């Protein structure tokens, strides 16, 4: 609750994005909102989500944009192919990378809808949002905190569960994030996908992406994209599985980035009591939306 107020208060006062993000995400971001707004982004496809299959949709979009050419999609790591606009990385700054790329560029962001640079809307960027059910997102996020040394210590599973429910995690409150983007799709160019649907029927969901990006590919190429973007293949793809990060940043021996890639792993983490408490809280927070998730397939 506190975090949510902080975001809105500071947005209303038009503070710099860097100040906002330092508060919210405890990372240092060097570009102020003004300079981001002033950029001409062109026709960008970007993905906005919170620990829900970003890397997966990035690979799908890249394969689509390169007509299923696997070698071209292995030209660089995920980070370099798709600048992560709010994250400061060693090496070239994400924004510089983005500016050097020809349109249509593909960018990555986890920002909640109210923090997206206004130019995204002004330039009518195409946005693909992938949402994942809260319980699996939470489990995945917890393990990511354990293995990623740039993230705050998650504490115990029980402690992290409480923080998640309270929205006291990086990129803010899951409930507000998914609802915010769900509402925004009524007025903007947003394709809202669900991780569970992608898992259940990748062909159907990738066809939606093709249509959204106004691309037409042969059936054979589509099958190639489906295969190349399966969990098993991506787990072995060094350009997508984050093993390119040194262990001091991501320690895959604690928990691999490509961990399980399933729906329903939350059942291996929640106790019965935790599940009941979570469900009750969830009902309240999601009461006034028609946005519905599947917790299992
Ligand atoms: N191809 C494919 N199929 C199924 N699942 C996949 C795939 N690629 C990534 N993943 C899973 O997505 C989880 C990581 O989420 P993100 O990519 O959004 O992480 S990040 O926020 O961008 O760092 C993480 O989920 P968990 O395995 O449940 O932890 C990844 O395994």
From TrEMBL:
Transmembrane segments: none annotated. Belongs to the sulfotransferase 1 family. This is Sulfotransferase. GO terms for molecular function: sulfotransferase activity. Coiled coil: none annotated. Its EC number is 2.8.2.-. The keyword Oxidoreductase does not apply. GO terms for cellular component: cytoplasm. It comes from the Eukaryota. It is an enzyme of class 2 (transferase). The lineage of its organism: Eukaryota, Metazoa, Chordata, Craniata, Vertebrata. Keywords: Cytoplasm, Transferase. It is found in: Cytoplasm. It comes from Chelydra serpentina (Snapping turtle). InterPro entries: P-loop_NTPase, Sulfotransferase_dom. Its main location: cytoplasm. PANTHER family: SULFOTRANSFERASE SULT (PTHR11783). Residues 52-289 form the Sulfotransferase domain. SUPFAM superfamilies: P-loop containing nucleoside triphosphate hydrolases.
């Amino acid at each position: 609750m506190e975090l949510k107020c902080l975001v809105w208060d500071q947005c209303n006062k038009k503070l710099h994005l860097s100040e906002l993000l330092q508060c919210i995400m405890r990372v240092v971001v060097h570009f102020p909102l003004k300079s981001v707004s002033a950029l001409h982004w062109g026709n960008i496809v970007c993905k906005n989500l919170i620990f829900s299959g970003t890397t997966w949709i990035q690979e799908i979009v890249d394969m689509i944009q390169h007509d299923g050419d696997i070698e071209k999609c292995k030209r660089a790591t995920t980070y370099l192919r798709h600048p992560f606009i709010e994250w400061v990385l060693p090496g070239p700054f994400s924004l510089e990378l983005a500016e050097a790329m020809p349109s249509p560029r593909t960018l990555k962001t986890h920002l909640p809808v109210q923090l997206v640079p206004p130019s995204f809307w002004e330039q009518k960027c195409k946005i693909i949002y992938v949402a994942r059910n809260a319980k699996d997102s939470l489990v995945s996020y917890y393990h990511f905190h354990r293995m990623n040394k740039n993230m705050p210590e998650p504490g115990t599973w029980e402690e992290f569960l409480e923080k998640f429910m309270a929205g006291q995690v990086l990129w803010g409150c899951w409930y507000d994030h998914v609802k915010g983007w769900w509402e925004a799709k009524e007025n903007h160019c947003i394709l809202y996908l669900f991780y569970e649907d992608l898992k259940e029927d990748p062909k159907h969901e990738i066809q939606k992406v093709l249509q959204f990006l106004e691309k037409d590919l042969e059936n054979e190429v589509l099958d190639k994209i489906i295969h190349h973007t399966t969990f098993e293949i991506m787990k072995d793809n060094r350009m997508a599985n984050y093993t390119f990060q040194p262990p001091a940043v991501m320690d895959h021996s604690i928990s691999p980035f490509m961990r399980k890639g399933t729906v329903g792993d939350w059942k291996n983490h929640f106790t019965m009591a935790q599940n009941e408490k979570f469900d009750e809280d969830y009902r309240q927070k999601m009461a006034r939306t028609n946005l519905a998730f599947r917790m299992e397939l």
